[in-house]
Specification:
Length: about 140
């Protein structure tokens, strides 16, 4: 029987909030870019805390997808495809993959004409994922 796991709404709400914080980048480019480039370059406690939470949630989602392989809801495909992407992103950042680091530096280039488009897409993604989390929470409570 298909059931929404108790952590699934939390998964989407947390990822949604993580992406929604990027509104800050639309308001104050320099402060936003300085903060994240600082986190990425320092690889201190904040870096490992954030990356650990993201990695844990992705691994949990991927496990959930495969444990329910023949009985999945449509949103669990997000765990697989999004989770693999995020885990690659975290791996590439942690190991210093050159082309990925250069891509991130371009993404955080505050003079880029694409700045608003890039970060607005992340904000829209965050909003959609956050709303999905709320919908799942409501559905789970009505099961």
């Amino acid at each position: 029987m298909k059931r929404i796991k108790f952590y699934e709404p939390v998964f989407f709400i947390l990822f949604g909030l993580f992406h929604l914080h990027r509104i800050w980048g639309l308001i104050d480019r320099k402060a936003y870019a300085d903060f994240w480039i600082g986190i990425l370059n320092s690889k201190g406690v904040s870096y490992y805390f954030i990356m650990g939470i993201l990695a844990f949630l992705c691994i949990l989602g991927i496990i959930t997808f495969f444990k329910n392989l023949h009985n999945n809801y449509w949103w669990r495909y997000i765990y697989l495809f999004g989770g693999v992407y995020v885990l690659f992103d975290l791996f590439a950042i942690a190991t210093g993959v050159k082309f990925w680091h250069e891509l991130l530096l371009k993404m955080f280039d505050i003079s880029s004409t694409y700045w608003n488009m890039i970060w607005s897409l992340f904000v829209l993604l965050g909003g959609a994922v956050f709303i999905l989390g709320l919908i799942l929470l409501k559905k789970m409570k009505s099961e």
